[in-house]
Amino acid sequence: MVGFGGYVALPGYLAAKRLGVPIVIHEANARPGLANKIGSRYASQVAVSTPDSKLRGARYIGIPLRRSIATLDRAAVRPEARAAFGLDPNLPTLLVTGGSQGARRLNEVVQQVAPWLQQAGIQILHAVGPKNELPQVQQMPGMPPYVPVSYLDRMDLAYAAADMMLCRAGAMTVAELSAVGLPAAYVPLPIGNGEQRLNAQPVVKAGGGLLVDDAELTPSGSSDTSCPCSPTRTGCTRCPAPPPSSAAGTPTTCSSAWCTRRSPPVVHTARTV
Fold first, then answer.
1. 138-149: average pLDDT
2. What are the Cα distances from residue 85, in Å, to 18, 77, 107, 141, 155?
3. Which of 30, 117, 140, 260 is 20 to 30 A removed from 87 (C-alpha atoms)?
């Protein structure tokens, strides 16, 4: 039996132990959950994605990635990717997704701040999730596009189209963004055992992203000057689209992840499958 954790895995581990079936576990998160903690006691092999895992008998192998992600050349594919989504080929692009099912908090905030970002010259590709209603968008002439979609079945093209991402911090998301070199503002899921924050911390510490608490992700909070996509940034000419009011000002040193490291380092080990 091969298990990846979660509430459905624990009964399977216990049944496999009782029947004498070998167990192999892969733990993707930086902090393992209860199912894998218990299952690792009976497993013949335990694979983990972080080198400092506390699971018994763990072997550090990283996270297997799809070949389309592991071999992605974002710069080379960018023109094709932006054309595929109906985006401008030259404007800075923010990709927003809360995972395959979307994230209500991210959806609500992005829909409210989209006009501010567009006024700052930033276009948006927003995956709201298949069970969430698509926002009604009225594209204004001369404004950068805001493109909401229910689901992205070509994440390689979405990553290639983007200059930055706003997302949760699931283990696979963090690994894929690290592999393709896409900086992100990570908003860890506020429930669970805190594993999403731990997933993102190595990338953030290395300068490849920002950490934003879920409670702080509000329309007013998203205009904080620490965000490289914020329309209220002041004086930074290296960020994707400084607001017009700052264009004539004296450029200042920007400490955001966007400026300090345009491509985040690969923190998670990626294995092509």
1. 86
2. 51, 13, 18, 18, 12
3. 260
